[in-house]
Amino acid sequence: MSRWLPPAALAVLLLALCALSLALGARAVPLGQVLDALGGAAPDAGVGNVIWSVRIPRTAVAVLAGAALGVAGALMQALTRNPLADPGLLGVSAGAAFGIVVAVGVLGVSAVHGYVWFAFAGGLAASVVVYTLGRLGRSGLTPVKLALAGVAVTALLSSLTSAVVLTSPETLNRYRFWSAGSLADQSGDGVVRLLPFVVVGALLALACGPALNSLALGEDVAASLGRRLGLVRLQGVLAITLLTGAAVAAIGPVVFLGLVVPHLARMLAQRAGIGPDQRWLLPMSALLAPCVLLAADVLGRVLVRPAEIQAGVLMAFVGGPFFVMMVRRRRLAEL
């Protein structure tokens, strides 16, 4: 099998799911009318408005956020050499949640485009604290210390978030909607705000690829090959923070996406003869994750039409049993 076949197939699948996302929803729109609307010649002004104002921003955010979480998950697992690592391990999701409840419950911010920045700031601050704690001690920054620091900071921020939420019904209502992992009510402005963080984070992650391949051979071997491990980890943490913080701030914490997708990408890579090469796994995760997220979003829109099930709820419902089955049936692919 050619190395280019899996990425090409994933790209085609992503385009097909984007078309379905534009066509399906509370009101189904034939693909012909979707193409007409994209060309500015929609026969029905209402259809054109739905496509451009609602479904295109929603689909674009799903692609960007899905790619961000997929790359962040693959990078996190490679950086910590832990097959169960999740982008939220650095405390980014907990920091974003705390930022939102502070913005809504303490500062009175009510608009989504207002508190999304607090979510990103909270995620960034949490990752800085985790990285600083992980560097303490004689041994410096290690994957184990980084993971333990992430767990501790996540537990602390989750407790603080619960304390704020339980004292404010309005904050609880907004937090519940965000925490469900929703792609609803997206806008073109949201796409513009999300894009720079995802692009910069993805470039940083892709630049880590060769160093991650060396790190997989062991820290001593990587150091002997001239890799500056501290710099690699710092670059990786920054990339994970940008990608996860932006995605979580925009759509909420979509569980299992960054955990399961890298394993699926490694399975495809093994079948294609690519092996555990991060230079291929990271782009494949960037293509596969939005496919999974878009499929969950489209399914959630059509199952209970005209209402909808949030994509994050479906991901939790399907992702948990799928991951357990994958772990039970086969040994996790080596990192």
Automatic annotation (TrEMBL):
It comes from the Bacteria. The keyword Methyltransferase does not apply. The chain crosses the membrane at residues 56-76, 88-109, 115-134, 146-166, 194-216, 237-260, 280-299, 311-328. It is found in: Cell membrane. Residues 1-28 form the signal peptide. Keywords: Cell membrane, Membrane, Signal, Transmembrane, Transmembrane helix, Transport. Pfam families: FecCD (PF01032). The keyword Hydrolase does not apply. InterPro entries: ABC_BtuC-like, ABC_transptr_permease_BtuC. It is a multi-pass membrane protein. Belongs to the binding-protein-dependent transport system permease family. FecCD subfamily. This is Iron chelate uptake ABC transporter family permease subunit.
